[in-house]
Write the structure tokens for this entry.
Amino acid sequence: MEYSRPMPPVPERQPTLDEQIAIYQREYRDLDPQVEKVVNALSRLDRRMNVAYGRQLGILGLGHAEWEVLKELVMAGTPYQLSPGTIAKRLGLTPAAMTHRIDRMLAQGLVTRERDPENRVRVIIGLTDEGREKWIQVMRKASVFEEELLQDLTKVERTLLGELLTRLLRRVEDAQPDAGGRLTDLD
């Protein structure tokens, strides 16, 4: 007859980063605790920042999906226009998903959709004044949040952290160029 032990009590709080690393090391002795601490700290920070940004967007009546499109249009520069295919490719979306996203944003007055005057077959998505104002409002809120996030770091530490994270990002982008979305299969 098989004897089953009762399940140990599950803590109601998430383990601290150090507790998590200790648990991992207990279960997998070959673990490099320095690597795990960095990777798990980045993961936890990313998750919490996404929640915080999501809340800020919600206050302004935007979702993450709309924010991503606004960002792409602003980054395109004046006159803040791109084809839906270009936006979809950059965001890793299918053309159908992009169409639904643009339809929602049109209804909100954030973007325009017009025929390209040079090629009547193509469509151009443009940023409205209201869309640009929404982008500015989000940037104001994000700047306050980001300044609070980094308030305990000196300017030198911020610079160093930025350089280190950029170096890690470059390594990931070089090793996995498609990790940002469907970049190659939409050509």
User: Anything to note?
Assistant: Confidence is low (pLDDT under 50) at residues 182-187. The first strand starts at residue 81 and ends at 82. The chain has seven helices and three strands.
